[in-house]
């Protein structure tokens, strides 16, 4: 189902203009220039449309309040990976999603599940034809989630189905900005819809000369970042060949402003983040800071790990997890501090132990990593525990006991998804 585009359009460095886009149309207008950072909820995987993972305040020292389970009496077993919890109006939401590394899971049905924020009891669930392809998005009285069959779903916060669109390729993460929902599918096509389901933007990476010189395919595992300056999406081009991470910038009328690329040996680019005039993108063992206006690189930092998580920022520093958690100067990319990973060497799947690959949640006073909090100025531990694998054979620890998806915070609670235990609330 993946589209193909000119190999020439994916050559290294920055390419400007609208090359590689066809069958396009529409405009959703420009979202508000000022975006509130919610304090009582966490509506998007990165909290705000710019995907910075930044909230005003978060909880202090916290204990577990409740935890869900994959099995609920008389209900179907929840198969798949728990997405980052979304929080709003007394409910906590998650979607059961696939792993791109185990493609056979894409044939299984998925679910969107709502829990009561007070005690963690299941309020409702909606079955999807396939596992979710990425993280959902919450907006007012409805949420949006795409599945790996290529369908985008809108579901009310009461669990009613509102509308669907068949996009033709696995649908990845969703971002709501203003009155519109933006998604990128696995063909690297950008879509946007009104909250009521009317399509207002469609930009396809394939062109009239599709297939010339062999073309290239795409793989996507991210939500777009959106602000008043444009829409930014990260994709993996030619996953079976040259493997280039691409950061694509679009105007709000769908015109491609620029394309920035770099080779990676492993993984898929993560959800980008926009901070003022910079776009942050991670892939493989690197984080790149790119000028939003021009696509020129301002700085690059190499983590020394094969896998790097999505970036977060408080406007002064960029925070990125790999084997360790790094705090980098937003101005020049210099390391300011790190939280050293003390996981057991030789953990399953990682040469140097269980990595900190989830995007941290960031507030003005703390950086939240797993079930702990750190001072943003120097990285000193404020409270909490990062945990350790229990044995050298850490397959269960890597994929079960560790919250490998990004946390969510409100003023008084921290929410995590453990792939074995389910969703947890600490307060």
UniProtKB/TrEMBL annotation:
InterPro entries: PQQ_b-propeller_rpt, PQQ_rpt_dom, Quinoprotein_ADH-like_sf, WD40/YVTN_repeat-like_dom_sf
Official protein name in the record: Outer membrane protein assembly factor BamB, contains PQQ-like beta-propeller repeat
Pfam families noted in UniProt: PQQ_2
Domain (Pyrrolo-quinoline quinone repeat): residue spans on this chain: 110-194, 246-422
């Amino acid at each position: 189902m993946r589209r193909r585009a000119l190999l020439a359009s994916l050559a290294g460095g920055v390419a400007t203009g609208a090359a590689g886009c066809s069958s396009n149309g529409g405009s959703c207008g420009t979202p508000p220039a000022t975006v509130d950072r919610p304090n009582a909820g966490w509506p998007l995987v990165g909290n705000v449309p710019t995907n910075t993972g930044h909230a005003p305040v978060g909880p202090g020292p916290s204990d577990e309040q409740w935890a869900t389970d994959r099995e609920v009496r008389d209900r179907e077993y929840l198969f798949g990976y728990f997405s980052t919890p979304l929080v709003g109006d007394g409910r906590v939401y998650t979607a059961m999603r696939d792993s791109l590394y185990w493609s056979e899971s894409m044939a299984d049905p998925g679910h969107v599940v709502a829990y009561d924020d007070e005690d963690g009891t299941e309020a409702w669930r909606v079955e999807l034809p396939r596992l979710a392809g990425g993280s959902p998005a919450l907006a007012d009285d409805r949420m949006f989630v795409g599945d790996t069959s290529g369908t985008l779903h809108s579901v009310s916060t009461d669990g009613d189905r509102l509308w669907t669109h068949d996009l033709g390729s696995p649908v990845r993460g969703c971002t709501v900005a203003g009155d519109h929902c933006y998604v990128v599918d696995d063909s690297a096509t950008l879509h946007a819809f009104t909250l009521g389901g009317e399509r207002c933007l469609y930009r396809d990476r394939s062109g009239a000369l599709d297939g010339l010189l062999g073309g290239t395919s795409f793989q996507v595992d991210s939500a777009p970042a959106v602000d008043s300056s444009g829409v930014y999406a990260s994709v993996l081009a030619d996953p079976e060949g040259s493997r280039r991470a691409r950061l694509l910038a679009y105007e709000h009328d769908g015109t491609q402003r620029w394309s920035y690329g770099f080779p990676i040996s492993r993984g898929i680019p993560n959800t980008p983040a926009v901070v003022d005039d910079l776009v942050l993108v991670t892939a493989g063992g690197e984080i790149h800071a790119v000028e939003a206006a021009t696509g020129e690189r301002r700085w690059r930092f190499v983590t020394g790990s094969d896998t790097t998580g999505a970036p977060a920022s408080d406007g002064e520093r960029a925070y990125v997890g790999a084997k360790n958690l790094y705090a980098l100067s937003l101005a020049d990319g210099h390391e300011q501090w790190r939280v050293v990973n003390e996981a057991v060497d030789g953990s399953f799947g990682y040469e140097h132990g269980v990595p900190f690959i989830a995007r941290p949640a960031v507030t003005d006073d703390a950086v939240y990593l797993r079930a702990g909090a750190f001072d943003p100025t120097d990285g000193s531990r404020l409270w909490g525990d990062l945990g350790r694998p229990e044995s050298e054979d850490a397959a269960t620890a890597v994929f079960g006991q560790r919250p490998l998806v990004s946390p969510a915070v409100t003023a008084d609670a921290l929410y995590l998804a453990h792939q074995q235990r389910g969703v947890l609330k600490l307060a």
